[in-house]
Design a protein that fits this description.
By secondary structure, this protein is mostly helical. It has one domain: Tetratricopeptide repeat domain (Serine Threonine Protein Phosphatase 5, Tetratricopeptide repeat). It is built from five helices and no strands. The radius of gyration is 12 Å and the shape is globular.
Length: about 80
């Protein structure tokens, strides 16, 4: 969860300079540890091209992982992207 919050701080520039690329790296590390918040955040980054190339397929993949845990945002977004 700490990795997720480091990513959020980097994405938003809270307490540090804004660095979307570093945010994606932190989100990815956290997502690899099965953190649904990070999976959803990483999906959003891929969906919108934040700190990475826009990739709707990867966005769906990460949203689906988060949705498996019942994450409401991920479920709603998957429905919108389908």
């Amino acid at each position: 969860m700490a990795l997720y919050f480091l990513g959020k701080c980097c994405e938003e520039g809270t307490g540090t300079e804004r660095n979307p690329t570093l945010a994606v790296a932190f989100y990815r590390r956290s997502a690899d540890l099965d953190d649904p918040w990070a999976q959803c955040a990483l999906g959003r980054c891929y969906e919108r091209g934040i700190g990475t190339e826009k990739d709707i397929d990867k966005a769906r993949e990460y949203y689906a992982l988060a949705a498996e845990t019942g994450d409401e945002e991920a479920l709603e977004t998957l429905g919108r992207l389908s």
